[in-house]
Design brief:
This protein is of the alpha+beta class. It has 2 domains: 12-104, Winged helix-like DNA-binding domain superfamily/Winged helix DNA-binding domain (Arc Repressor Mutant, subunit A, Orthogonal Bundle); 140-408, Winged helix-like DNA-binding domain superfamily/Winged helix DNA-binding domain (Arc Repressor Mutant, subunit A, Orthogonal Bundle). Helix content is 49%, strand content 19%. It has helices spanning 16-22, 25-34, 41-47, 53-65, 98-103, 106-130, 150-177, 203-207, 223-229, 232-241, 248-254, 260-272, 305-310, 313-336, 357-387, and strands at 12-13, 69-75, 85-90, 94-95, 140-149, 185-195, 219-220, 276-282, 292-297, 301-302, 347-355, 392-403. The radius of gyration is 23 Å and the shape is elongated.
């Protein structure tokens, strides 16, 4: 590895012996930071934090012993009073191959996943607080809940593997075009695909599932509706109704919300704006003459680039926070239901890299392609569901690419 540059060593496959220590969130954070630039335990504690310098120093030594770090420099003199301050740099990226991951106990897989999620959430929080998350108008943030069969699930996992490998190439190409890194963007990329908790589905809902179709284009949001859709509950309604039809009453009973009248108003607004349609009106029973309307989603919300660029930063940030809230809710649901690691080939990866503008634009095209691809897989799965009994995997996928604060690099 060149000092402060690219890592040429291959990813290190982890055994169970090493996996358990790496489930510690601070060891994962050390690896993430040292992939950006060399640091000493003292510098890490001062700039990032941690449980204390002695413990952080021990984590550094352990990661060196396991082959993740190496000593890049030894500093003497100054206020060190004869002591040596060792500066470390990362030489291996952490990677579980599928066979090793499958051999790990379920509890250990969950601990590693939680640790990795802590790191990603920390990166997102840093960018939101520093105002860099939406600094680039072509930043990427998309997530959706989907229904795939086993065949489509496997194909999407392989596709994300390809996106991750392509990111390595973009990083190398950026470094070759811009060796100093001065004009590069510090970018955090996150790729997620995991099993969602199984929601209760009635016989009626099975007859009228929301099947995506080629002739239903993404709905382009206008600046007028963008602010309204920044509301987290409207975003949550859209996310849930893309998995199955629901009435406002069912939504409040199963998901929650401020109260039934407010949720019902959100449903009516989303219908007026073209996101939902009514598929059934339920009468009788305990409704006492009232009508319970069942809705389903008919279009995915999508900003065209010109519209997104015309929105003020405040409006873009509000939409982003709302979408992130929805994604965090979905992750919490999966953790609580113990489905996050139910599939051995679930995908959870994030990394922070230096990319020049050319590579940044290429990354955006690849993420757009991944979003289109999962839509095609969802349509193919729906066709196979209609033909016969195939295993259904309720899944959540998310793609993120945003600018991280420049304070993370020197």
């Amino acid at each position: 590895m060149e000092r402060g540059g690219k890592i040429d060593a291959p990813p290190l496959d982890l055994s169970s012996r090493v996996a358990k220590p790496l489930a510690n969130p601070w060891r994962n954070r050390i690896l993430a930071e040292l992939l950006l630039r060399p640091m000493s335990p003292k510098e890490f504690t001062r700039e990032i934090g941690g449980p204390g310098l002695p413990t952080v120093a021990r984590y550094f030594r352990e990661l060196k012993r396991w082959g993740f770090l190496e000593v890049a420099e030894e500093r003497r003199g100054g206020n060190r009073r004869g002591a040596v301050e060792k500066v470390y740099r990362a030489i291996q990226r952490v990677h579980f191959d599928t066979s090793t991951w499958a051999q790990l106990p379920r509890y250990l897989r969950s601990e590693c996943s939680h640790s990795m999620m802590d790191g990603l959430i920390t990166r997102i929080t840093e960018a939101v607080e520093a105002g860099t998350f939406d600094a680039e108008k072509d930043r990427h943030l998309s997530w959706k809940t989907i229904r795939l069969d086993r065949e489509a699930w496997g194909k999407y996992s392989l596709h994300l593997d390809g996106v991750l490998a392509g990111l390595e190439h973009l990083e190398v190409e950026s470094a070759s075009r811009n060796p100093s890194g001065g004009d590069s963007l510090l970018v955090t990329v996150g790729l997620l695909a995991f099993r969602s908790p199984q929601k209760p589905i009635t016989v009626r809902e099975r007859r009228t599932p929301p099947v995506p179709a080629d002739n239903q284009p993404h709905f382009l949001m206008s600046a007028r509706t963008a602010k309204a859709l920044a509301n987290p509950w409207r975003n949550r309604i859209l996310a849930e109704l893309h998995t199955r039809p629901m009435s406002p009453k069912q939504f409040v009973e199963q998901i929650g919300g401020p109260d039934l009248p407010t949720v019902a108003r959100y449903f009516r607004q989303l219908k007026a704006w073209g996101y939902l349609e009514i598929i059934e009106e339920l009468r009788g029973g305990a409704r006492r003459g009232s009508v319970e309307k069942v809705y389903r989603a008919i279009r995915h919300a999508h900003f065209s680039t010109p519209t997104w660029e015309q929105l003020p930063l405040e409006a873009r940030s509000a939409c982003s926070v709302s979408m992130l809230d929805g994604l965090m809710e979905r992750l919490n649901d999966a953790i609580a239901a113990d489905t996050l690691d139910a599939e051995v080939d679930r995908f959870l990866c994030w990394k922070t890299v230096l990319l020049d503008r050319q590579a940044w634009r290429q990354l955006g095209r690849e993420l757009d392609g991944a979003l289109d691809y999962v839509g095609a897989l969802e349509r193919a799965s729906a066709e196979r569901f209609a033909k016969g009994q195939v295993e259904e995997i309720p899944a959540t996928m998310a793609l993120l690419a945003f600018r991280s604060p420049e304070t993370l690099r020197r």
